[in-house]
Amino acid sequence: MALQALGAAVRYQTTFSDRAREIAILVVAAYRESDFEWYAHEAVGRHAGLTDAELDALRDHDYDGLVAHDERAVARATHRLLETGDLDDDAFAEAVDALGLPPGVRAADPRRLLRHARPAAAGPAGGGPSPVSARSLDTRTVASSEL
Prior knowledge:
Elements: H1 2-12, H2 18-31, H3 35-47, H4 52-59, H5 69-84, H6 89-99
């Protein structure tokens, strides 16, 4: 369910271009080795202008094969979030540099851009809520009024 919510957010609640949106989806499909997701979105990606070489690069996790800086940033950030569930300061800065911040989000308030989604490995002592990372991904659908 969390992955479906993330997919809906990427498709309907971002300002990504059609190409960047499909790049993010195809990065997830390749990372998860989801043949169905890849099949479903490869055609959409082609329709959005992705070439055979770019699709091969995405499948191979070779994001330098993408020409546009913002599209490389989308692919790298998506891959990093899948690998670690978080963006370190450098990865976050690269994404913001390439993509900017959504309207209403201040650079000093990155929690509104990317929110907590994964619990700590063992959870905090006493079983309370997990600590919040300022740059971790929230797979819940976030209403635009929250931004």
